Amino acid sequence: MDTWISHSRSKQQTAVAALATLTGFVLAYGFHHAGHLAAGFLLGLLLIALGIAGLLTGGRQTITINPRTRQITVDDVTRLGKKTRSIGFDDIADIGISYLGKRSNYVTWYYLNLKLKNGKEYPLFAPGRFYEGGSDRAIVEGWRDRLRGYVER
Prior knowledge:
Layout: E1 4-7, H1 10-31, H2 38-57, E2 59-66, E3 71-78, E4 81-88, E5 92-102, E6 107-116, E7 121-124, H3 137-151
Antiparallel strand pairs: 1-2, 2-3, 3-4, 5-6, 6-7
């Protein structure tokens, strides 16, 4: 069994955060004098805040699933620093699939949801990280089946 390594797509993260920031500035500027349309101005401020937060916390995530050491390592490298999380296969109680978005608007991102034996949950291949194939449920089901195969050995 080979080590499975996946990288998030940081360029897409940055593009979405920059677009949110730009849209926020346009809305805030366009509605800053419209007293009765304060919702547009406030929405602009919200988008600016979310966009800037996305630009600061966005970065590259690398997931390494090593069947030999029976461990998952998640490395997050952002503009604010680096964080590493390790999850042993023996700590995983179940592997499910969750999604973010609405099926009705055809924008849905799927990801693996690890249910840990300590009662906590951990999202793997999180939707905001834009993993290749995350919008295709069949691909994410393949990820789940592959990981289950590793964990159950």
